[in-house]
Design goal:
5 strands; alpha+beta; rod-shaped; about 40% helix; about 110 residues
């Protein structure tokens, strides 16, 4: 017959061992999240910031709202766009620019 003390002295399976191995899955998950989620987002943010820094007059851009136009003037935190076909001029903040359209592409 099993005694309560003998059962507790034997321990339960899996409780004894290297404590580092209990944290290994957590560390592995953090590493996977970093390489799959955080690092690509940081790279995308860096290339977007570089693109915003390189904006110049004459560049064709698309805003986050879907408006396409040509840059007429660049200010510190905003720029003026000329919108065809009526050559309407609007001012947008630089952070609203989603993409720069290559100059050789035609619509």
């Amino acid at each position: 017959m099993l005694n309560g003390l003998n059962f507790m002295a034997a321990g339960t399976p899996g409780t004894s061992g290297n404590p580092l191995m209990t944290f290994a899955p957590l560390v592995l998950m953090v590493v996977v999240f970093y390489f799959l989620l955080i690092r690509p987002q940081q790279k995308k943010q860096k290339t977007w910031q570089t693109m915003l820094g390189n904006l110049k007059t004459g560049d064709r851009v698309t805003t986050t709202g879907g408006i396409r136009g040509t840059i007429v003037a660049v200010k510190d935190d905003s720029l003026q766009l000329r919108i065809p076909p009526d050559n309407l001029r609007i001012e947008v903040v630089k952070t609203a620019i989603a993409a720069v359209t290559p100059a050789d592409s035609e619509e």
